[in-house]
Design goal:
The protein has 133 residues and is mostly beta strands. The chain has strands at residues 9-10, 25-28, 34-39, 43-48, 53-58, 66-71, 87-88, 92-94, 102-106, 110-115, 118-123, 128-132. Strands 1-8-9-10-11-12 form a six-stranded mixed β-sheet, with no helix packed on it. It has a six-stranded mixed β-sheet with strand order 6-5-4-3-2-7, with no helix packed on it.
Length: 133
Amino acid sequence: MGFAFLVVVAELVVSPVAASTPAPIWLRAPGHFVYCEYDDYTTLRCFSSVSGRWVRITGIYAQAIRITTGRDVRLIGFRRPRNDTWLIDGYVYHDNRSESRVICASTQTFFKCSVAVVRFWFKRDGSFRLIRG
């Protein structure tokens, strides 16, 4: 059985004259089962609104990337409003920098991101996997 899905590319360019601390960019998987907060092109935090599992990657454009994971039951059932200006509700996202160190893609049942040398994915049931290297 085959499947088809629509691919939407979302790009956001932040002007160098923007405020020193811009609002974080929020990514959402179709079906709202995963959310990611991308803060000032340095920190990416993604979590499952089903299981509360999360991954946080800091130092994305630095020499040393730090990865932490965990589970927070307060994230279960989390929702951002649809009219949120900083919410990108699409199937493919990349950070539009020359290096494209953050690339995320999703379908109705699967969400994955590649950040420098780290890859991770969430499934709709809340399961999570982190792959280094």
